[in-house]
Specification:
homotetramer, alpha/beta, Alpha-Beta Plaits, Rossmann fold, four-stranded antiparallel sheet, 9 helices
Chain lengths: 302, 302, 302, 302
């Protein structure tokens, strides 16, 4: 448990069950025989299926979603041939799309934060514990406050100020830092709104934590609104970011009980515990390829 | 456990701790010495305080709320003198309001229901078990479906049809049935909107169960809306009814986890379990004088 | 919602997703190619896989468990040929065992109860709602108290007294009633211990609800023991019955928060809500073939 | 949010509602008039009661417990006179005991840890956030691993090795460090058993976090035992340490759902989140004088 970068554990080697494993996500229109086709391709390549989760939203011809986790000797070498077969059988024959990933290669992530550090610290700590199969490539913040803490975990920190209504200069800098360096972005209580152009140009999934049980209390100041309404639970929502503020596909939500005696500050404090738990679950599931987007919904094979 | 009315348990005799007990709710502007004044009045009458809960929304001069539960010999005989002293010390001296009630006299309630029986049945069953210190004076429904079930519990059932947009005839009948007969009303998934005039003329608190985690999914069809939005939890909210639909003071809320695999019907089924739990808690707390209204908020001493 | 037997809903027609569906449970030693073999057999018979859950307790050669839900035209007629193929491919080739069931045929159950009716009533009510794909063949009790209630749901009730230490006469009568009539037994707070001989001769799974979070508070009086120990949560456990009291494979557990102010009777009252919830989930999952026993453990595909 | 000791926030100034507040805990045999006596003493000294929680374990003559939170001008100066009056009215007249504390003076604590840092880090972080009204005087560990992390929060760290069966040398060193320096001790996953002599000589309350839902899985290796038994929830228990291992008064417990697919290591990982949450609540409540010991039970006014 030293904080020196050189001795930090390499997370992908500690995370449960990802050694030499690959995940295959398949989605598309349901049809008889898909699973048989898919599994015969995998077994034809000597893959051993570790887990297989499937969901059809309608037994009579709806949409089909499947996550298969498998192990295979010499996985990297075998991937091109496997892809060719999957293209033949799943894409051409059944019109499906698929996503195949070697889970021994951790996803690279940039975390955006502002002044609050509870979500950020929880991700940094879980990563150091080997609980999250990710490589935290960088932390970006519009405030310098958390720099020292981030760097004590051996993670690069970049301060990109973002003042005034025009965020375009900051976003240019963000895109320059992210370009080709990350597979997804996490907004860990980043208190700035991203432009639609940024979201599009970033070109990777962006996960946000909103400090309410959406769709209740959309927008700014949800804890103050919750106090005003007199709710008996407060919550948090992790979702993919879209152009519509707080309207993207929900990955995970949770709540905690509060009482009349809790001030808005108490709600924020209790909610912070929920925020960090919800965000860390969402990041874990995204990193483990457990989340499939379907329009504005998610299928979560957790 | 027979269903004959004559042999039904008398709830007030079975419910925990309400024998010969009284509750005193006090609220108003906070001031130094209130609790001392209040407790000295009670001890002067030989009352033994069983529990005392207090809440001030601001240590420096905010609003003050207190619930005291006490036992006293010859309670009924002593109430007039006790009231006189409380008027002197709390009302005149401190400008507070209070509510004093002999808890051995169960509150009388009318339950309104429609076709769904899960909330209704849970209240009837808990009442029969002696869990709710209430007298269920009647069940009123706009459908005849639950008549036989209600009467099997020894409770009167009245069918008051309510068709078409004009509810005034039905509401006249409701008011006639309720008049002087009940201390509060429970809407146990009653699928009709009450007019502001009815609420005012009924003159008693009305508790509703809404099948969502308010303020999310206000209005009709919350489970369909929840499915549409892709939430990961569904909930229920018990609140006092005001003229503004689903906007009244919240008494209790809870949620249950759902997944992408749940259809809107599954959400309704899972939510039903939460609805009945939340409503029964709200009814218990209201009946035990644990709920104090403060504007559009509630203080719940539970 | 009438209580006349003749008009009772036929549950199997209302329960979500069981029309013309079949479940296939497969378990045994893991090997490469099992899933491919299994799914190719199913697709060879024109089955459409609705969901598929799999679990291997060790990626390198452990035990394998799979639950497949599928639809198939003319299911009943096709079952013999399907069984023959499964025998060839799964049993002979891979040494696995399997359990194939037409889910449109509800499992037949006998519920044993004593004086407490909360678990019993919840099962009867959920069954009437169409939430449980079971046929409740009979309710058996050592007390006559719940007879009228059970019969109001259109379910046969048999009173089998069980006094004194020798239960053998009662067990003979139980076995006579159960013989060839039921697929499993549910002990809904049945306060008698079953003999090992009875369990063996009954020859069907028996599900019990224990009123504690096992393995805490094994045996009689768990709420009194919980009060004595001063726990802050009380729970309930549904498990398969084995000869060792309260030691059988756990199907489901849950808890509820309690406080110092709760008496042992309050714990029992709060726990009762958990008991009925836990037992109804266990019965649902067992009826839907979601539970696989593995030694003293269960795999629950819920 | 810098990590420099000199600039660390002083927690007691940030924690909700403790400015110039005092708490008064009273316990003993219940009698009519206690609350009136107590509140008249307080109001006689110009105290304003902010909250008042009371519990009697029996309305007819049981044990009485009360926590009163009040504000008072010139609190420190007034304490001696207030104590004198409380001695007169509560101790002499009613035979009660009381504990009066100025909440603006944070309790001093020593945290004992071993190699796991999840509970420790959560306490350090919450303390830095101002969520815990404590002064962390020191962290003591039998391993040097967490030294750098602890010191980055500006907290002294002492490494006291404890090898072999004889802990007496280590305990002598512990007692030397603790003497007159701390008001309580927290064992944040400290993996050494304390001797009865140490507990007695330390002379301050010791709070431990046990990684199971006690009384299930007492002793070492609870997650392995939980996996072996096949439970569906794992939990954690914060309790005061007594000579009897894992048998002391329980302050707080909580659980999290697990499944058959979780390995013992997964249980440990999921349980760690519960451990840190439960321990931080117990520490907060102890620090805020919300916990009263009553034999082997606790009254928690939370």
């Amino acid at each position: 448990m030293t904080l020196t970068q050189g001795r930090a554990p390499r997370p992908a080697e500690k995370v449960r069950g990802t050694h030499h494993q690959a995940s295959l996500i398949v989605q598309g229109a349901d049809a008889t025989g898909i699973v048989a086709a898919l599994t015969s391709v995998l077994s034809g390549h000597g893959a051993n299926i570790v887990s297989l989760d499937q969901y059809s939203d309608n037994a009579q011809g709806g949409a089909f979603f499947q996550r298969t986790l498998f192990t295979m000797d010499a996985l990297q070498a075998a991937l091109p041939a496997l892809r060719a077969d999957l293209d033949d059988r799943l894409v051409k024959q059944y019109g499906l799309t698929y996503r195949l990933r070697d889970l021994s290669v951790p996803k690279r992530v940039a975390i955006f934060a502002s002044k609050s550090d509870h979500c950020l610290l929880d991700l940094l700590w879980r990563h150091r514990q080997g609980q999250l199969p990710i490589n935290i490539a960088m932390v970006i913040s519009n405030h310098p406050d958390v720099a020292e803490e981030v760097r004590s975990f051996g993670i690069p920190f970049f301060h990109v100020p973002s003042m005034g209504p025009d965020k375009s200069a900051a976003e240019v800098e963000h895109l320059r830092l992210l370009k080709d360096n990350v597979d997804f972005v996490v907004l860990a209580r980043y208190m700035q709104i991203l432009s639609g152009e940024f979201i599009e140009r970033a070109g990777v999934p962006i996960i946000n934590i909103h400090h309410s049980f959406l769709p209740a209390f959309i927008g700014a100041g949800p804890y103050a609104k919750a106090k005003e309404r007199g709710v008996k639970l407060v919550g948090a929502t992790a979702h993919y970011v879209t152009e519509d503020l707080d309207e993207g596909p929900i990955i995970e939500q949770d709540v905690v009980r509060v009482s009349h005696a809790d001030t808005a500050a108490d709600l924020a404090r209790r909610g912070a515990d929920v925020e960090r738990a919800v965000l860390s679950r969402a990041v874990l599931w995204h990193a483990e390829e457990r989340v499939v987007r379907n329009g504005n919904h998610t299928i979560v094979f957790a």
